[in-house]
Amino acid sequence: MQSEQLTNLHAGWVVGGWLIAASVTAAIYLGGVGLGLVPAGEGAGLWFGVSMAGGFFVGGMMVGMRWSDAPLLHGAAITFFSVLVWFLVSLTGEAGVDSVQMVLGLVLLQFVASCTGGWMGRRMTMGGSAEEGA
């Protein structure tokens, strides 16, 4: 994809996409809790993963639709911003991590979901072909 250059990366769209992704993730998860779809215990982690995938897909798609230059790079930057926020929160000592594998799995899930959403947003904007206008 010819538009995947650092000059096409805009920090405002990255932060906005992350805010949308975090909001949609929380809305999906709380909606599941309110409807009684989230089981207690181990099943809550699976529901959290599903809600995170949906939220970051929507966040990436919104960025891909509004700013169709470098959708994959924006998706990767949204994920990097999540890691940065997690690092800043962990500096306070308030949050604990259950396992490194879980954290790395969630980061990979965010990366795949936000990049796929960005790519789909670009496809929708370009009329079905992600290569047009590149």
Broad structural category: mainly alpha
Could you report the average pLDDT, rounded to the nearest whole number? 85
Largest sheet: none
Strand content: under 5%
Radius of gyration: 16 Å
- Residue share in helix: over 70%
Overall geometric form: globular
How many domains, in number, for the residues? Answer: 1
Order of helices and strands: HHHH
Report the span from N to C terminus. Answer: 7 Å
How many H/I helical runs?
4
What does the model show?
The structure is a single chain. With 134 residues, the chain is mainly α. The chain has one domain. Helix content is 71%, strand content 0%. The protein has helices spanning 11-34, 43-66, 71-91, 100-125. The longest helix is centred in the last third of the chain and has 26 residues, at 100-125. The protein is globular. The N and C termini lie close together (7 Å). The relative contact order is 0.18. The model has no long low-confidence stretch (mean pLDDT 85).
Topology summary:
Elements: H1 11-34, H2 43-66, H3 71-91, H4 100-125
Which characteristics define this entry?
4 helices, mainly alpha, 134 residues
Short description:
This protein has 134 residues and is mainly alpha-helical. Helix content is 71%, strand content 0%.
